[in-house]
Design a protein that fits this description.
With 457 residues, this protein is α/β, with parallel strands linked by helices. The protein is built from 17 helices and 14 strands. The structure holds nicotinamide-adenine-dinucleotide and uridine-5'-diphosphate-xylopyranose. InterPro entries: 6-PGluconate_DH-like_C_sf, NAD(P)-bd_dom_sf, UDP-Glc/GDP-Man, UDP-Glc/GDP-Man_DH_C, UDP-Glc/GDP-Man_DH_C_sf, UDP-Glc/GDP-Man_DH_dimer, UDP-Glc/GDP-Man_DH_N, UDPglc_DH_euk.
């Protein structure tokens, strides 16, 4: 096979790791990643990569300058590419029609227009970003507005990686989904992209569909996953009222092979850049296509998620004698999940803001996300300290609130922590990751999610 040139526009959480793995698995393909953000590109070219993912650094170091290049020269990248992945951000619109729900497609459109401007031959353009169903139609119209008579094939190839396990997910995906036009040219383009993934993904895990199914599948996959978390969290509230134990309930329910054991962990709520945004997008689309009942059904997943973090703070207040004013609270974890420094839509942020409103003083500790936490809470009123050391964070605190399921939190010396805290000492485990009986033995008043609290009074 001849050397292909792949370009990815957008060097973020998706474009960066995805292209690194393609370059790693396809040494005969030249992969270039471009971005308008010069600082991000400089970071990809440095020893301090712009994002943290286990295993990412090794892959990048192996391929960089061999067949993996990061650049800000977007026109050159477009001219040279045979296949262009578009992996720009598609956030929720904050203005105008559809504000707060619809996807903001301005970055996507700008990308399509720069492809039109700089391309000198026809190309395969791959939607990697998560997009509303039927975006490929708009994309095709923009690309074919070129006056050079160039022909483009548009494919949809949504990304299913989860943060914190991105490299593992990319190297060993459950499935790769490729949608294209149902024409001979469309099918040829699909096969071209299949041949890239087939270098390392078993053929039966590469699914090909029409464009619209592929675009919609991405929104649906995230909606179904988030719905599972909201369903479990709703039941965690009922467990707390009835002395049922959420881990026992989901453990037993998940044994049913139709339900399955994964993604049933109660928490303070889901976060991350995708779930809320993609459900809002789905809700907007359902409204747009005249299906208000379907829209309401999915919107409830987000409402339940917001209820869960409010409920958590409500439980903290109730346990701590209805006031946290002036009390120091150690926040263990700020990332939206473990093994990432990403804090986008982190429920920890919402909990912190609610506690600050109650005039609590916060000591925030996170192994990877302190930098982002500072940015997220910039401008928030109240005392906030950011601490690298969890023991320092807990010193003199009335309570610890576990927000992220970092493994390191399980390995701390909780007797030492207890001795350094104000009494009575409270521990609210928003992830159910600690040994609650052992903490109770040490002297903590322990409040898990969806389980009976263990208190000394
Ligand atoms: P991101 O914000 O980390 O990265 C997007 C990058 O695109 C930014 O660096 C931005 O500067 C760049 N960009 C924007 N406009 C540009 C332009 N005109 N030209 C060149 N570069 C431009 O976003 P992300 O998390 O990588 O997500 C990208 C897409 O992938 C989104 O649609 C998202 O929904 C989807 N997605 C994200 C995840 C995830 O876990 N983060 C997983 C699956 C899918
Ligand atoms: C998600 C999808 O999993 C991924 O396929 C898609 O490509 C991007 O969006 P991500 O947001 O990175 O990935 O993380 P994920 O592992 O899905 O977790 C999302 C949120 O749900 C996190 O805040 C996590 O803590 C929470 N969660 C997850 C729970 O509260 N309970 C669970 O059982 C699982």
């Amino acid at each position: 096979m001849s050397m292909k040139n792949i370009l990815c526009i957008g060097a973020g959480y998706v474009g960066g790791p995805t292209m690194a793995v393609i370059a790693d698995r396809c040494p005969d393909i030249k992969v270039t990643v471009v971005d308008i953000n010069e600082r991000r590109i400089a970071a990809w070219n440095s020893d301090e990569l712009p994002i943290y993912e286990p295993g990412l650094e090794e892959v990048v170091k192996r391929c960089r300058s061999r067949n993996l290049f990061y650049s800000t020269d977007i026109p050159k990248g477009i001219r040279e590419a045979d296949i262009i992945f578009v992996s720009v951000n598609t956030p929720t619109k904050t203005f105008g029609a559809g504000a707060g729900k619809a996807a903001d497609l301005q970055y996507l459109e700008k990308t399509a227009r720069s492809i039109v401007e700089h391309a000198e031959n026809g190309k395969i353009v791959v939607e990697k970003s998560t997009l509303p169903v039927r975006t490929a139609q708009a994309m095709s119209r923009i690309l074919h507005s070129n006056t050079k008579n160039l022909k483009f094939q548009i494919l949809s190839n949504p990304e299913f990686l989860a943060e914190g396990t991105a490299i593992r997910d990319l190297e060993n995906p459950d499935r790769v989904l490729i949608g294209g036009m149902e024409t001979p040219e469309g099918e040829a383009a699909i096969e071209e992209l299949v041949s890239v993934y087939a270098r390392w993904v078993p053929r039966e895990r590469i699914i090909t569909t029409n464009l619209w199914s592929s675009e919609l599948t991405k929104l649906v996959s995230n909606a179904l996953l988030a719905q599972r978390v909201s369903s479990v969290n709703s039941i965690s509230a009922l467990c707390e009222r009835t002395e049922a134990n959420i881990d026992e309930v989901t453990g037993a329910a998940g044994k049913d092979s139709r339900i399955g054991p994964k993604f049933l962990k109660a928490s303070i709520g889901f976060g991350g850049s995708c779930f809320k945004k993609d459900i809002l997008n789905l809700v907007y689309l359902c409204g747009h296509y005249g299906l208000p009942e379907v829209a309401d059904y999915w919107e409830q997943v987000i409402r339940m998620n917001e209820f869960q973090s409010r409920r958590f703070v409500g439980n903290m207040l109730a346990a701590m004698f209805n006031t946290v004013a002036d009390k120091r609270i150690a926040i263990f974890g700020f990332a939206f999940k473990a093994d990432t420094g990403d804090t986008r839509e982190s429920p920890a942020c919402s909990v912190c803001l609610q506690l600050l409103e109650e005039h609590a003083r916060l000591n925030i500790h996170d192994p990877k996300a302190l930098g982002n936490a500072k940015l997220d809470l910039e401008g928030a009123t109240g005392e906030i300290n950011y601490l690298e050391d969890p023991y320092e964070a807990a010193e003199g605190a009335h309570a610890i609130a576990v927000m992220t399921e970092w493994k390191s939190f399980r390995e701390l010396d909780y007797r030492r922590i207890f001795d350094s805290m104000e009494k009575p000492a409270f521990l609210f485990d928003g992830r159910n990751i600690l040994d609650h009986a052992a903490l109770y033995e040490i002297g903590f008043n322990v409040y898990p999610i969806g389980k009976k609290a263990l208190t000394h009074f």
